[in-house]
């Protein structure tokens, strides 16, 4: 339709980019952690774009089996890269794979994250090299999966039913599925990929149960892919998203494995059936945290993708006119559209910086745990940090994944009808991401864990034990809780310092409330676990406010470390993040008296004006996320603004215009050409009843 | 696995049903509007269940084309029923089709709701009988679609680009798509179903534009299904949900239709090109409201489906134990799980009763409009009611569909991992429902319309004009706004009367705030539309609180009309709905001083205790919704509690266990058996850059 009037788009984005108040490329470097990292990301993105294996533009019209076949080809690519590039490059590659193709990310992650992680965390050095030689590093010979959850058991690992019984006569373990609900379920890679599995099972030796341990169980013959005797695996089939990953179920019927296939870094069973349990059980928790940290990072990355699409489209799309006779208004110029998207953009920055910070803390912690031995003088310090990491990451995983799920949905809705098309990418982004709220610990359960941790910190602080890190605000509570915001204007109420103090105070109040509820329960005669249960809602609420504040404090810290030319815009975004969070949750901020009603009105007004302000940089901020068009895979998000042409082109390419449906003769013709007399009245008339 | 221990389930639900505190069957009758209506619903559900055409249990493994073919067969069934049953029976059938198969509901609705609705609303009596004879009632000869939205235009109908130019020489209209963005887009039924379309186009006569009018345009030859000359239709293909509906795009290139194909009930064009415009433009708005009302009703119906699944599963699933050595705890017994689901159950009742009430009001209004003529003495009264209906339905559509989308997602998350399986039904329920937040008016835009209406009511009330219906609380504001809750205990604060007054007062406050912001803008010299734009956020907020309260007031009214034996449980649910809404939005209730911080703490505690109380009736309440297992199509929601067996059975049936993937030789074997020496290091090392 070249002779027709061109759709809006390219000129709009060009004009938007003129408005930038900060150096975009510098922002990219800062977000990525330096120019070198940015260039690495760009090189990997270019590889994806040029490699036919990574093609994604037609994925919405593939069948499940076609998607899985393609995803297997990508697993092969990943195996190649693992063997040929440094770990930090592979890690960066994986982060980008999650943005490009979450289903494949999971399929690769099942082996390299879960199976391989279980070996690293649970195998003795000898066991580790044994499996490495079998192909656990290169996939040359074996691919692993991770059989933890069962049909009847998800979050509660200690309640798993699968058994591993030591048979002294043959020096073997017998792995068995004792009931339908014990069927291993949701096992990624089990249906079509894995030759081996790490299996979580209750260890029984001489009739005694030692709790859940890990066992490597061969599943299939790598030559024929036939199942080993005693093993039944079925495909779990269609799911909401992550179609590239083949989840399956596994039933074991008295399957025998050598004793040496139990991972024995921690608990050991010797030939005589003597069981030796590890001195430091807590150190095995580290692996749990890794997944949570990865999901905080992923939340930021996916939020940035969704926002790039929705904000670029909002700068192109015009709808309704404020003044008769003039062109319609760009939807990004509407107050309400700014309010829909700008606070979420600020939230994405908060999650991004928090992800970086939490990853750093996690890696430091793992390094210090690596060499730790019982009796070391650093032990207590490391255990304290582990406890903080465990408690904090629980709440952060929950609220980051919830936030991003909400961001994706808001972005989809902000694109109007076109957000509902598969080709614009937000629908699958949502369905792929949604599982983050459930796996690696159901979000709600995690908030309760987080709340339990906060209550214990509160009680320690009250007993005089100084708290460090993200809960240091619980020290000197008496002084903190008396503070009130003294701001006399909208300007004064919306500084970083006021927001910071507001979050400290209100987080302290809600944690204190949860702690008091807990203590009151104990005083009434409840057991501790009963009392924790009773104050569940208070725990959830405490974790929510604590986590919102935690993100704010990380964001504020990231501004202080940033180049001077980025500070003004980051400052605006950080204030917007914090003030919006307060406006949306104004209840506790009023209830505990930190702000007056008038101050809350000022805050609301400031959120609106910050939205208008940030809007000027909106396109440049999405540019700074630096995702290529190929990575975004959404015509609405195209960097050159040709949204409508690209969208129309995709739809045209996918479906030949004017096609007569294959079922025309069977289903449509008879409808249009039927004789009405043939329609006898068979319907009962309810009047006759 | 018959020899193994049986999974939990049947006994659990049996025990739950013993706990009912109300007569379940009576509740069903009350919800349905009487025993007769319940029996009609049951008859229709049984027909679906027995008719192979309506089979849905295998739908998650079908391709898009297979789903569409099946859905076409269902359209044929619907056409049969239209011709053979009374309208109220067909209406009931359609409500149930929406619960069973939303994609097919839309495909049928495109003709019978949109196309046929446009004829009824826009055709002269002669035109109406002409199209009826062509098959518009029976689909014997034609099927219609509704071409309103364009690639570049959704919400803003008056900005549509398609033109209909009167050619006096031939007495024809020329329908034309002047640009890419003018392409009709998202047109349900266009891709594979429709022979005709109602087309929205700018009417041009003698060079003058008269705005958007409706034209019937033949699209395809009913004999061959070939496109008519000048018409290009393409398939829009994959979308987030509603796969049964075939959305397409349409481009018209100078397509000629007889003058009589313009719908001329309102605006008329005669042979000479004289245009006669209608005296009462507002009366054409009625059709817009119908869709909104249908979506309020659908929100209740779908929420009940999601909740039945999640709550029944919560009564079966056990996870973690509170006491060592005892069986794990039923998840419905956890405080937090009650808090996740019970308030949503209460919300579903509120939406259900509001849907009934708003439908009734809508039908009464339409009846009175049917015969209305300019100059009638009832005219002003009807126009007032139309204005209220228009304003109120906007906010209700937005907040009901948002609420239900949230309910579905919460229910999915509450089912843990199994919520992510396609077979458990919540994933597709979400993707199918999501479009309700966008079509028939984007929710955010609708809240602004609602806010505009509330501001105008506020200003009228202030000027002394008494307000009726749902905005009557705006009369005597001075007296209302001084009220404060005087409750001295948790019990006193949580009565229906307190909640009612709280919503009146706080709704009045936020409406007043929006009105004052608007007036301040005008005082500053803004035009009215500019000032409305500036106070967008306040308008949205006002509509939110008003709508939450509106639902509460309808629910309270429904209790008063209910049988005495249902009142205790309905009373609890209504209080739970209202108090939860206050707890979740405590900000404005504190900000405007209706409640004190202590009272808000009491409210939170009451919500928790009401959740525990309602939990006793939870299964019976889902039973009262009376959806058959077939309608629910989710193993987790089975009425007999055999969730695990049914789920495992579905998965087993869909996928043969032990199958070797078709791509084993192509993609897996080469990975497992490759020679590592062949992996040359081709990867650039970034250290060299």
From TrEMBL, chains A, B:
UniProt-listed Pfam families: ACOX, ACOX_C_alpha1, Acyl-CoA_dh_M, Acyl-CoA_ox_N
GO biological process annotation, one example: fatty acid beta-oxidation using acyl-CoA oxidase
Keywords: FAD, Fatty acid metabolism, Flavoprotein, Lipid metabolism, Oxidoreductase, Peroxisome
Residue ranges of every copy of the Acyl-CoA oxidase C-terminal domain listed in the record: 496-672
GO molecular-function term, one example from the UniProt record: fatty acid binding
Reaction equations catalysed: a 2,3-saturated acyl-CoA + O2 = a (2E)-enoyl-CoA + H2O2
Cited InterPro entries: ACOX_C_alpha1, Acyl-CoA_ox_N, Acyl-CoA_Oxase/DH_mid-dom, Acyl-CoA_Oxase/DH_mid-dom_sf, Acyl-CoA_oxidase, Acyl-CoA_oxidase_C, AcylCo_DH-like_C, AcylCoA_DH/ox_N_sf
Residues the record marks as active site: 440
Domain Acyl-CoA oxidase C-alpha1 stretches: 285-455
Family: Belongs to the acyl-CoA oxidase family.
Name of protein: Acyl-coenzyme A oxidase
Organism lineage string: Eukaryota, Fungi, Fungi incertae sedis, Chytridiomycota, Chytridiomycota incertae sedis
